[in-house]
């Protein structure tokens, strides 16, 4: 496993953020991209833009399975792009092939958040199909229990996504040896 990690880090030129909805992938991703001079891409927004409808509408028409097929195909394409920070959807890691592609094609950072934190951040957001339930907090706990082992499996780096100071988290990420090595490699490849 460590050998595959080392091999992936020799060729990786993008950063992929994984974690639960509300973990801060978009906020952190946008700031991290700006700090390292990469493009920022939010996979959910890209999927909505390309399909011309919202994610809740895709869920209503095609169900979660249809949405996941679209998401997997899009991530296959997006993970091939260099010099980007890509914020994935919370369930992107459910697909085994997507996990493999993320891990092999970039530096994967898991932004870990507690169920309580995710609930606090998402409780007023009506656009999340998986939380349209009688007890959203309980649903978040179920999703986190199901997904956390997959986030950990795919991650090269795990960071606690603290609500208090996203700037400090971005600073810690920029200073991380794997992140700085990736950025330097991407800049050298582009210059060479």
CATH class category label = Alpha Beta
- Estimated helix fraction: 55-70%
* Euclidean distance between termini CA atoms: 30 Å
| Low-pLDDT windows of residues | none
Order of helices and strands: HEHEHHEHEHHEHH
Average predicted local confidence, pLDDT = 86
Descriptive terms for the model:
about 190 residues, alpha/beta, Rossmann fold, 5 strands, about 10% strand
How would you characterize the overall build of this protein?
- The structure is a single chain.
- The chain has 192 residues and is α/β, with parallel strands linked by helices.
- The protein has one domain: Rossmann fold (3-Layer(aba) Sandwich), CATH 3.40.50.300.
- The chain contains 9 helices and 5 strands; from the N terminus they run αβαβααβαβααβαα.
- Strands 2-3-1-4-5 form a 5-stranded parallel beta sheet, with helices on both faces.
- The radius of gyration is 16 Å and the shape is globular.
- The two termini are 30 Å apart.
